[in-house]
Protein: VOC family protein
Amino acid sequence: MTVQPRFHLAFPVNDLEAARHFYGELLGCPQGREAKGEWIDFDLYGHQIVAHYAPEECGGATANTVDGQKVPVRHFGLLLDWPVWESLADRLKTAGALFLIEPYVRFKGEAGEQGTFFVLDPAGNALEFKSFRDEAQIFATG
Structure:
């Protein structure tokens, strides 16, 4: 799945080395430039994300109930091909990542059927990773 344009997202972290481990090693994002003690760029599947050291901006996530689960209002993530989504979920489980919502399939057999899971980075930023077996269902309404 190749999408243009790519997005850029900057987000706060309270520990740059923990962010380097989570994004670089656990998620497998190649590292780009950095300003020591200030920020680190990562390549998240072709998108530029930047972890900025800003501990005062971390925490305090508000959640809404979706499918009986508490979904953080502020989150970001990706739509991945199904095998990539499954592989990432397995890698995160094996590594003992903190899942807010374990991998599962929503809307099974309905419009918009999707695999999804939420994980927290060490600073408390929520990430959602989704997958659709049929990409035509991404914006399906019924």
In short: Residues 55 and 79 are 28 Å apart (CA to CA). The radius of gyration is 15 Å. The beta strands are 8-13, 31-35, 39-44, 47-53, 63-66, 69-72, 75-79, 99-106, 114-120, 126-131. The chain has one domain: 8-137.
